[in-house]
Amino acid sequence: MAVGQEEQLVVFQLNDQQYALPINETQEIIRMAEVTRLPNTDYYIEGIINLRGNILPVISLNRRLGLPETEQSEDTRIIVVENKGNKVGMIVDSVLEVGRYTDSEVEPPNMIGDNVDFLKGVVKKGDQLWLLVNLDTVL
């Protein structure tokens, strides 16, 4: 990113915390769909969905990040991302906005904890903190 250049993020909610993904890693955002469960898969894999004729694996981002699971609601969304050529759907509690940020608003993820490798950094937006998800380690 060029210095001072603004980038866009998709900001979403998991439990009571706001997370964010760079918009260029995000393919689309869809409403919660009927998920077909698969046997013998990782604990965080919800199953698969049929997205316009394409079979797409779907993960629970809450489960993947070790967060409490929330009841699905009208606001539940699937964020479709592409990482290393693979498309994956991630279930989130809700999508809030497309936000903008600059390099100067990002802090490195030097927090103490096990899940620090799931984060690329923390965006400070006024009094809000957006945790930047690192798709390389999440998927």
TrEMBL record:
Gene Ontology biological process terms, A to Z: chemotaxis; signal transduction
Q: Cite the CheW-like domain residue spans from the record.
A: 6-139
What the entry lists under Pfam families is as follows: CheW
The UniProt entry's GO CC annotations, sorted and at most eight, read: cytosol
Chief location bin: cytoplasm
Q: Does Heme count among this protein's keywords?
A: no
Organism the protein comes from: Desulforamulus ruminis (strain ATCC 23193 / DSM 2154 / NCIMB 8452 / DL) (Desulfotomaculum ruminis)
What SMART domains has UniProt attached to this entry? CheW
SUPFAM superfamilies from the xrefs? CheW-like
Question: Where in the cell is the protein located?
Answer: Cytoplasm
- Identify the keywords attached in UniProt to this record, alphabetized: Chemotaxis, Cytoplasm
InterPro entries on file: CheW, CheW-like_dom_sf, CheW-lke_dom
Q: What residue stretch is flagged as signal peptide?
A: none
**Matching PANTHER family:** CHEMOTAXIS PROTEIN CHEW, CHEMOTAXIS SENSOR HISTIDINE KINASE-RELATED
The name this protein carries in UniProt is Chemotaxis protein CheW
